Structure prediction request, 369 residues.
Amino acid sequence: MSTPRLALVHERLTEVAGSENVVEQLNRQWPEARVHVPIARPEGIPAGLTHAPVTTWLDRLYRRSGQGSYAPLLPLLPGSFRRMPLREADVVITSHHAFATQVVHATDAPVIAYVHSPARWAWHAELRAGEAGGRLGELALTALAARTRRQELAAAPRLAHVVANSTAVAERVQQCWNRTAEVVYPPVNTSYYHPDPAVEREDFFLLAGRLVPYKRPDLAVRAAEVAGVRLVVAGDGRFLQRCQELAGPRTTFAGRVSDAALRDLHRRSRALVMPGVEDFGIVPVEAMACGSPVLALGSGGALDTVLPQVSGQLVAAGGDDQVVAALAEAMTGFRAGDYDPQVVRKHAERFSEDVFRTSMRDVVTRVTR
Prediction:
């Protein structure tokens, strides 16, 4: 049997983050496959892609606009996926978090959807609050959300196979699309993030990532103040000022740091603190890959990645004051001797890039068998 010709489809290449790393690893597994996206800009293209991405007519509009915000193009994105040139592909893998499953209308080949999430802003009104300017903008985004839900529901039965990036997302796929999803965890660069025996642990906890409201960095800052422990905050974002207002003298803000600096912080910190709910959560696995345990809210992706008494501790979800108290108790009661860095590291290897590529290869084999 000949090797199937694959095509890879992604939402957009405007910045490199977790979903772009997924596409890069898929391209490493199938280097002959072309990556199709509606729009792209140089800083959003992963360095490991084997070919330049194939863009659509929307990319010309995006370039003319100066490649800034893509928000004005949102209503046009679904149509661009439906017109992608995918006729020569024997199987299509689409990386979806908003519109990408619309490629089912562009090809008769089986489409495998790797789902970072059904379009959360479309299904949850609270996530649209404050994202559009004024009453007219709010009405337009609400109308787009309704259309997006209809489009996702229409595409879902036509997907040959659905893969979710975590158990939490698989449950959301079932709720929103009425489809069962197989879980394949996203790739984490456990080769880069690894322990260094020459680096000694220091007396501080670490909070790392974008400082935005949904990640709840304010809860970690408040908890550190209650516990009277040192906290280093690595990251920036629109919630920075609020976190600084809540911080005590033992909390330090390092700003946005390089990968090398973040790895060093993981190696030196007592533990990473994860106060928000993530669909998966790359940063906690990077910490564990460096041998650092994780104190996390027991919800969302942390239930997949943090193994209590082995790689960290889960605290109960609840109201803000309850979570702050629980995190503070976990910090004050933390004992480094309870965790073996090598065991923590071994647990993180379950989420490596190699494991991801092997798992997705198995998915394609089953679908095309």
Observations:
- The chain has a mean pLDDT of 94.
- The chain is about 40% helix and 15% strand.
- The chain has two domains: 6-187+352-368, 205-351.
